[in-house]
Amino acid sequence: SGLQYRFADTAGLRDTEDPVEIMGIARTLEHAKRAKLLLVLVDASSPEAQRVALELFHELDGNARKALLLTKADRVPDSALGELRNRLVGKLGDVPVLLWSSVSQGGDAELKGLLDRIATETLPEAEEVVVTNLRHYQALAESDGELTRLLAGLQSGLSQELLAFHLRRVIAHLGAITGEIGVEDILGNIFQNFCIGK
């Protein structure tokens, strides 16, 4: 799909008296408030894990979409998996309940489909994008200005050196936001593949 996902592996939600685990669970609940999707992993072969997950599921605040991923599905007979899934769907309502196994890779396609569907539903439309970081806004405005000068230079026959200068500035401004763009790498590729300046 071309989308990047960032996963945060947090402490598990469980009944515990251990102070360190309690702190980890509190951090998990705080992290959950900032998430776009909460993918709760529950051992399909453990009735206790399922019970605790159902009890704590309501504590996951925030506006995030939620999904329950029953792991180790290869350890449970198919008939029992179907019953378990139906029971959980009945208790969780519109929360998707997926079956997954790292051993058999069963459920991979369904999980990827869910991630893509949720991303597509939650991504803003192009007209809706709002830049809330002033530094990012300034970098985008500078990039836009440099692109305008670059296009005008292309149309007016500006020298290749000056075109490269404007392109380098665009790349630098965007790189200030993403941190992933190497100006020299991109320009090297352009000069190598398109014979600019030779």
Write the layout of secondary structure elements.
Blueprint: H1 19-34, E1 37-43, H2 47-57, E2 65-71, H3 78-92, E3 97-99, H4 108-122, H5 134-156, H6 160-178, H7 183-194
Parallel strand pairs: 1-2, 2-3
Helix pairs in contact: 5-6, 6-7
The CATH homologous superfamily of the largest domain: P-loop containing nucleotide triphosphate hydrolases
What count of helical segments does DSSP give?
A: 7
Oligomer status = single chain
- Residue share in helix: 55-70%
The domain count comes to 2
The average pLDDT is: 80
Instruction: Give the H and E element order.
Output: HEHEHEHHHH
Strand order of the largest sheet: 1-2-3
What percent strand? 5-15%
Radius of gyration: 25 Å
